[in-house]
Amino acid sequence: MNQPEAKKQLQTNVYRHELLPTHFLERAGEAYADHIAVVDGEVQYTWREFRARARRFASALKAQGLEKGDRIAFLALNSEAMLLAHFGVPLAGGVLVSINTRLSADEIGYIIGQSGSTKVFCSPELRDQIPDGLSGVELLNTQEDLEALLSQGTEDEVSTEGFHEDDTLSINYTSGTTGRPKGVMYHHRGAYLNALAMVLDQRLTADSVYLWTLPMFHCNGWTFAWGVAAVGATSVCIPRIDPADVWRRFDEGVTHFCAAPTVLTMLANDPAAHRLERPVRLFTAGAPPSPTIIAQMAALNFELEHTYGLTETYGPCTINVPPPSLESQPEEEQSRHKARQGFLNVCSGEM
Q: Which of 93, 86, 91, 156 is nearest to 121 (CA)?
């Protein structure tokens, strides 16, 4: 090896830091150790406890023979278990396959087979959506089976030596509206950067409380599954959207959420709707929001940001950044402006 090549190799070894989203959790377990990481019904864990559970999950998977690149699928409702999968599976070197819970059994069976998943964890109430007779696939539920597996792991730090930021982190499938669902591979680097972009644009901090109205199976929750850990925010998991319950949670301290315009319409038209005492920030995407719903949400004291993205771009890749002068414009003009598509998010140029 000549001198320039040797110098380049030295710089790579000494200064290079692989961009792995699991790093967010390792840091959160120290920096925000006693802060609440996740609330799921009556269950809640601090960041120290949640990191320990992720380590147990990873070590148990490895003890059962998981090899780097093996696929582990989850067909699950928003829950602590689903959030845990986003850290435990990649920490073990596996690839997470988050399956859309709204697909048919035939489509779900196709995804499990096409992705090469060797284990499938499912919420108990979704078991009937998984076809029988899947060859070489172990089926487990996200409750008793997952907890039994965690009990076999250890809380020791899991080595990520040999991991590369260009390794596949997860595979997300499109809806299949134009044929079979298409698998989109995310690498660690892209997810890491997009997660940081989301928390920057959404203005999440350690004091934030993020409500999981957006399905975690959708582009890994638009990468917020990892982003909340980056800032030590609190995740509140709800399996399904009950408008009255969501409004109660807004009043009790939720500060941020993401949702499609159809969900916003559902919330705005619910009998429990009322103007909030403090603003709640939200990202909306999936379909263009109308100026009407944007104006309705503003009147209810929501700070709405319109984003645009698709599965192939880790979810949101553009965000409507309003100019300061917009605040002086009539409300109707503000709503029309916010309905437009916007600029690339702060990290999109790196993907």
A: 86
Q: Assess if residue 146 is contained within a domain.
A: yes
- CA neighbor of 233 nearest in space, from 57, 50, 97: 50
Amino acid type, 125: E
pLDDT digits (tens, 9 = 90+) for 147-193: 999 999 999 999 999 999 999 999 999 986 778 999 999 999 999 99
Q: 293 φ, ψ to 5°?
A: -70, -35
Residue 132 lies in a domain: yes
Residues 185 and 246 both lie in one domain: no
pTM of the model: 0.92
Q: Are residues 269 and 150 in the same domain?
A: no
- At 173 the three-state DSSP class reads strand
Which structural domain range is residue 331 located in?
241-350
Q: Could you give the number of structural domains in the chain?
A: 2
Nearest to 119, CA basis, from 66, 51, 68: 66
Ordered alpha helix ranges (H), the chain? 3-15, 22-31, 47-63, 80-91, 105-115, 144-150, 188-202, 219-222, 224-231, 243-252, 261-268, 291-299, 331-338
Q: Measuring CA to CA, which residue among 280, 281, 286, 298 is closest to residue 337?
A: 298
Q: Are residues 169 and 254 in the same domain?
A: no
Are 156 and 248 in a shared domain?
A: no
Task: For residues 76 and 158, state if they share a domain.
Answer: yes
Distance CA 123, CA 292 (A): 37
Last residue of a domain, one of 189, 208, 232: 189
Q: Which candidate, 49, 60, 75, places its Cα nearest to that of 148?
A: 60
3-state helix, strand, coil in the chain (%, to 5): 40, 20, 35
Q: Using the predicted structure, report yes or no on whether residue 268 has a pLDDT greater than 80.
A: yes
Residue 195 CA to residue 228 CA, distance in Å, equals 8
Tell me, what's the pLDDT at 246? Answer: 98
Q: What is the CATH number of the domain that holds 87?
A: 3.40.50.980
